[in-house]
Amino acid sequence: MYLRSLISLALLFCMPANAQVSISRGASLSVDAAKDGRLAIDLRGDIWIVPGGGGESRQLTRNLKSAQRPRWSPDGERLAYSAITDGRQGVWLIEVSTGQTKSLSSNSNMDIYPAWHPDGQRVLYSSDAKGDGYDLWEVDIPTGLHWRVSNRPGDETEGTWSPDGRDLVYIYHQGNQWSLILRRHAQPDETLLTTKNKIAAPTWRPDGSLITFFKTGATGTSIEMAILSQPRLIRTYASNEQFFASPVTWLDRHRMIYSANGQIQQRLFNSWSSSPLSFRATIHPDVIKTIQRERPTLRWLDEPLGQIVIRAARLFDGVSPGYHYDKDILLSGGRVTAIEEHKDRPTLIVIDMGDLTILPGLIDADARLPSNLSPSHGPDLLTMGVTTILGSHPDHDQLSILWAGREVPGPRFLSTERWQMGPTPRPELDVTAAVVTSRTTGLPSGEALATQIRTLQIAGLTPEQTLRGMGVNAAAAMLADPYLGRIATGASADFVFVDGDPLADVTDMLNVVAVVRNGRLYSVSGLIDRAKSAESVE
Asked: What's 409-436 look like in SS3?
């Protein structure tokens, strides 16, 4: 079972040093409003300030590439947000007028989802400080003292205080169940809702009469309401937009702002429709920096011996536009040695994949991994097409070696201690280089990547751009091996075989039938069996 992962999707814009780009949409966009109407958004991994009526935005942070979920202080002078520094996701405070920052985190690897207490002196956040899942913690800003607010088995996240500061609502996730929990002052916790659908981002209406939250099911994501009447009522508020599950922000009890359709949306509470609030964020040359550093060397463990041939009727190499047809991919020692036209090869082992489409293995360039990550998670990730992950975990070395072998396969596991996420050094293919990672949706790595497809479509990306975001662009952003994320001579032999035509319908990439990892072929059914047998592997 996966604990909740923090997921992020970033659009990284790569351009010449003398260029600039104006952005008016964001694939993953959270928004919060100050009392004076100013908006704070996370865009392209940094924090921006948007005038209350929209228009030209001001960039508040620079080159973080990981800033998420900004929240205004009650006085409108500071913002709390989450960002990665030194390989840790922490909660930070920034003075809006001066840009001065201060860490609010203690000694933990993952602190996320900051929320202010109405007194403006305390910040609530979710942390894995104890290494056994997320708990709710609070920090007193003047003294720097931290204390734990919750301690259940499972994950407690996204806590937020009621307008009067007496009550608290949060998300509880354990197993395959999600719950909305209300904690009244000096009373036992009350479960408002329990569901098998993912719920996220609760927010109080200013009068305390109801709580909005997001629910994601088979038909999409909706805004729901927990009406705090007697009896309690759960009602769907809106389901007619492509919502990004970041907290709704209320300007007053009638007006709300949220993220949907890649834009900032504004809506009256009693209205059936919303309207976009236009903004523009201009990225100037001083924001774009080319990263120069020596790339570490990939570890090649237990390389398969001998040469085999993978026969592809339809091949997307991750770089070239469109497909290559009727190709033979020659493999040896975990690498691609040649790509040639079909021909008889009587002395070699030939694996004919029929009408399946062959894609480069998917890359999660910034994965949040659970503390109880087990060997069985490796085969699970491969069934979703993920062949490389970048993440941090105390058992990294052990799992990296185990997953590279024959018995318990898994993705190539790159540690954030050596491989760091950074700006894409150069555009691989086009100006808009999407990099898809698992850092904002709350789903496991792999499953999370799949959920981002529709979001990228809304942002205007083509199927080719989406696939590159999970391939060559992700490898570039990781400053990793230049032959990850593509199928070419010398490249890592990591492929995904899908049933369908993902360049016509990108959702076909979810139809994974088989995977090649490090030159070894695994069927999805075989991986499921290996995951079950791996549960007892130490």
From this structure: CCCEEEECCCCCCCCCCCCCCCCEEEEE
CATH architecture of 20-287: 6 Propeller (2.120)
Confidence of residue 536 (pLDDT cuts 50, 70, 90): very low
Residues contacting residue 399 through CB under 8 Å, at least 6 positions apart = 373, 375, 378, 393, 410, 413
Averaged pLDDT for residues 334-343: 91
What is the domain partition of the chain in residue ranges? Answer: 20-287, 307-534
Closest CA to 49 of 87, 96, 2, 91: 96
Q: 515 and 387 in contact (C-beta within 8 Å)?
A: yes
Please check whether the domain covering 307-534 is classified as CATH 2.40.128.120: no
For the purposes of burial, counting CB atoms within 10 Å of the CB of 528, is it exposed (0-12), middle (13-18) or buried (19 or more)? middle
C-alpha 282/C-alpha 280 separation (Å) is 6
Counting residues of the chain whose pLDDT is more than 90, the rounded percentage is: 42
Query: What pLDDT digit, counting tens, does each position of 66-75 carry?
Result: 788 999 999 9
Structure tokens at 425: 């050094």
Report DSSP state, residue 299.
P
Bridge partners, 42 (sequence order): 47
| Amino acid (1-letter code) at residue 248 | V
Residue of 326, 327, 346 lying closest to 336 (CA atoms)? 327
Q: What is the distance, to the nearest Å, from the Cα of residue 372 to the centroid of all Cα atoms in its chain?
A: 19
286's CB contacts (< 8 A; 6+ apart) are none
How far is 93 from 403, CA to CA, in rounded Å? 39
pLDDT digits (tens, 9 = 90+) for 20-57: 667 777 767 899 999 999 999 998 788 999 999 899 99
Give the C-alpha separation, 73 to 34, whole Å. 8
**Residue 378: its pLDDT value, please?**
83
Give me the helices (H) in 104-217, please: none
Predicted local confidence at residue 424, as pLDDT:
46
CA 93 – CA 81 distance, rounded (Å): 7
What's the whole-number average pLDDT of the chain?
82
